[in-house]
Design brief:
There is one protein chain. 65% of the residues lie in helices and 13% in strands. With 302 residues, it is an alpha+beta fold. The protein has two domains: 110 residues, no CATH class; 117 residues, Heat Shock Protein 90. A five-stranded mixed sheet has the order 1-2-3-5-4, with helices on one face. Helix 2 runs parallel beside helix 4 and helix 4 runs antiparallel to helix 5. The radius of gyration is 30 Å and the shape is elongated. 26% of the residues are buried.
């Protein structure tokens, strides 16, 4: 009875630390289960060890070491419990070694997809916030203009109009500051948020040192390209490159997703074209090879 309790504690305790050291703790749990079998103690320790390898697959990015360890443990346990005499028992061992890893990987995949969906929802929230603030600031600017015109035409009401202008401009500035504080993100951070288990995004270059208008437009181009790829493409790899060239910034976003030529441009892409046009730059969006390409050139004053 005492030996049973000690082995149970020894096989279960490593699972407490499986998040920090997933493979190590799974192996420890498996070794204890094998030791218990060698001591001819009849107990369900092997089930705990299987759970340990399953949890290791959930928390460890590389599956190969976990799979090798799980199969090694399974065959060791099986041979100690009783050597198989045919093909079916060996097949059962393989299934027993692979199954917990597959389950763990599936759990991790579902979790990471959920996290990716949450990040995408946050990005959409920020974009909606940007539109809301833009509309609000536009309203304030229109009201300021009307008050200024009224002050010109009716000097007697100038003091009241100026007071209203001060209030409106203060409110608009406050909203702009909140807007910038909430949505200003670097491109590597954006790529990290949108990456997932089936989508790898690599970035090269940054907007550091660029004029604010150029840097913001470059960020919006990348944001729109990545968001569209995540939403509408089956891409598994996206490459983002920002490169300072003579007199301009080159922004290139390519992916390996579907390259259908009849994609309808939405408001987001039209808005990007308008931003680039206001800077005097150029942008080309469309299929290339086996994927999709966004290629922009933004002038940068020396």
């Amino acid at each position: 009875m005492v030996m049973y309790v000690l082995l149970s504690v020894a096989v279960c305790l490593p699972l407490v630390f499986v998040r920090r050291l997933p493979l190590t703790m799974a192996i420890v749990s498996g070794v204890v289960a094998v030791v218990g079998t060698g001591m001819d103690v009849h107990w369900p320790g092997r089930l705990v060890a299987v759970a340990g390898f399953c949890l290791a697959a959930v928390h460890l990015r590389r599956l190969t070491p976990v799979l090798v360890a799980s199969l090694t443990w399974t065959f060791t346990f099986g041979l100690m419990a009783g050597s198989p005499t045919g093909v079916i028992p060996y097949t059962d061992m393989v299934i027993m070694g692979v199954a917990p890893i597959a389950v763990g990987y599936g759990v991790r995949l579902l979790r990471e997809r959920g996290e990716q969906a949450a990040r995408l929802a946050m990005a959409e929230h920020r974009a909606q916030l940007a539109r809301d603030v833009h509309d609000s600031v536009g309203h304030h600017l229109t009201a300021i203009k009307m008050q200024a015109v009224a002050a010109q035409r009716v000097p007697a009401t100038a003091d009241r109009s100026l007071s209203t202008i001060v209030d409106l401009s203060g409110t608009a500035l406050s909203e702009v500051r909140d807007f910038v504080r909430d949505i200003r993100q670097d491109i590597p951070g954006l790529a990290e948020r949108l990456s997932g288990p089936e989508l790898r995004i690599t970035t090269h270059g940054s907007t550091t040192g660029l004029p604010p208008a150029v840097g913001q437009t470059a960020y919006r181009i990348v944001q729109e390209a990545l968001t569209n790829a995540v939403r509408h493409s089956d891409a598994t790899e996206i490459d983002v490159r920002l490169r300072r060239e003579r007199g301009h910034l080159a922004v290139l976003v390519t992916d390996n997703g579907s390259s259908a030529a009849d994609v309808v441009e939405g408001n987001g892409i039209r808005g990007i074209r308008e931003r680039v046009g206001r800077l005097g730059g150029s942008i080309h969006i469309g299929p290339v090879g086996g994927g999709w390409r966004v290629d922009a050139r933004l002038p940068v004053c020396p």
